[in-house]
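Structure first, sequence second, as always.
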């Protein structure tokens, strides 16, 4: 049955455009057109920047890490640079200087980093840049996984991603023991970056059909030696088996024990 508003066809009142209505209608249309144009220009600008940044990668690799005195010396997206500036991060620490150049190009990196050396940013920056390079959209789902030994460390990384990655618009979720599994279960499918502890992540992988890692771009293992000392070896192996082989892996560890070397052999190329 056709939709009717209760008026017969002939009596239907036509909308009248007087001079004033007409010009405000035109104004709305003009603004809409302008907005569309601006959006297209921004998209094009972003594409050009992406090309420019990637063109500089090869040049970057030829330089010694000592020449990177400021984060602006790295080819980074304006979104990350702005986030760093707003959080007053200007000069990279040694671990940041030594690893970022490699991790930016998509290579696997095994970094030896003592506590307090600044490794949080050394892992956050490449994660944000990898998703930016892949033009990751919030609806693409999980793009990066950061596994930490403790809730406190996971929380610290989560906060840094949110602070430095503010302009990227990726969604970030914390999946740690001690919080409600049901709450995490319902939200997990829409998250772009998950920061987690190994036990809770594996629980979701085993029990939650919404947990989908098929498109994962980057895996980060933070404080790998500590995770192994805490007895997470089996869980880490099971998690790695559930991830796509085609991905980037960043592994940070304060010590390079035999077990850490074995783990890095399993998860890096
Ligand atoms: N480039 C930087 N410029 C200034 N401060 C920085 C920089 N990088 C990190 N920091 C600060 O240094 C402190 C230690 O950094 P971070 O927590 O990343 O170290 P970490 O190696 O992860 O240590 P932990 O294992 O204790 O967490 C933090 O307060 C952080 O904000």
């Amino acid at each position: 049955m056709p939709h009717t508003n209760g008026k017969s066809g002939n009596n239907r009142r036509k909308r009248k455009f007087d001079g004033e209505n007409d010009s405000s209608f035109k104004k709305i249309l003009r603004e809409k057109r302008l907005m569309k144009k601006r959006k297209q220009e921004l998209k094009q600008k972003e594409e050009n920047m992406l090309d420019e940044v990637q063109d500089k990668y090869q040049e970057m690799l030829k330089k010694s890490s000592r020449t990177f005195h400021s984060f602006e010396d790295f080819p980074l997206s304006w979104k990350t640079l702005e986030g760093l500036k707003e959080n007053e991060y200007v000069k990279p620490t040694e671990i940041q200087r030594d690893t970022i150049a490699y991790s930016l190009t998509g290579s696997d990196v095994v970094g030896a980093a003592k506590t307090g050396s600044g490794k949080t940013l050394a892992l956050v920056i490449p994660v944000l840049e990898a998703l930016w390079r892949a033009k990751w959209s919030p609806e693409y789902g999980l793009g990066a996984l950061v596994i930490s030994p403790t809730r406190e460390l996971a929380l610290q990384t989560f906060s840094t991603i949110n602070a430095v990655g503010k302009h990227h618009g990726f969604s970030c979720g914390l999946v740690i023991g001690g919080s409600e599994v049901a709450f995490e279960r319902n939200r997990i499918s829409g998250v772009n970056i998950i920061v987690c502890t190994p036990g809770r992540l594996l629980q979701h992988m085993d029990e939650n059909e919404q947990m989908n890692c098929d498109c994962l771009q980057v895996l980060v293992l933070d404080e790998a030696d500590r995770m192994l000392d805490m007895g997470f070896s089996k869980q880490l192996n099971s998690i790695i088996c559930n991830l796509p082989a085609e991905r980037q892996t960043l592994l940070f560890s304060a010590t390079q024990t035999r077990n850490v070397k074995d783990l890095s052999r399993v998860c890096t190329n």
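Margin note: The chain has one domain: 63-267.
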